[in-house]
Design a protein that fits this description.
about 140 residues, 8 helices, about 80% helix, globular, Vesicle transport protein GOT1B, Vesicle_transpt_Got1/SFT2, golgi apparatus
Length: about 140
């Protein structure tokens, strides 16, 4: 079992609330207040989970500058008041930032009984395999 420090536990909670507010904000037709709160909570929670220095190093690596600029630019655009455009920029930046993790996540989900069965269905399996393969290319 993985042991977490108190700040990491707090960070997991803050990140969870951030994801909840982002999801709820999108369901409520891109409510800019909920999306702004979700963005702030997500980034702060991530900083608590992995630490400020590691967060800074993750976002500001030279080969991830394009992804970081899209993600943080999307956060800024949402805060300014254009939630749909900001979320499109954020989602694109998020996929660029975390594309290295997608094959690991897909492999993990495939081992979960019900979700693994769904991901191995003929139509879905081909799409998931392409997503996993294309994410390995930089």
């Amino acid at each position: 079992m993985i042991s977490l420090t108190d700040s990491q536990k707090i960070g997991m909670g803050i990140t969870g609330f951030g994801v909840f507010f982002l999801f709820f904000g999108m369901i409520l037709f891109f409510d800019k207040a909920l999306l702004a709160i979700g963005n702030i909570l997500f980034v702060v929670g991530l900083s608590f989970v992995i630490g400020l220095e590691r967060t800074f190093r993750f976002f500001f690596q030279k080969h991830k500058m394009k992804a970081t600029s899209f993600f943080l630019g999307g956060v800024l655009v949402v805060l300014i008041g254009w939630p749909v455009v900001g979320m499109v920029l954020e989602i694109y930046g998020f996929f660029l930032l975390f594309r290295g993790f997608f094959p690991v996540v897909v492999g993990f989900i495939r081992r979960i009984p019900v979700l693994g069965y769904l991901l191995n269905l003929p139509g879905i399996s081909g799409i998931v395999d392409k997503v996993g393969e294309s994410n390995n290319m930089v």
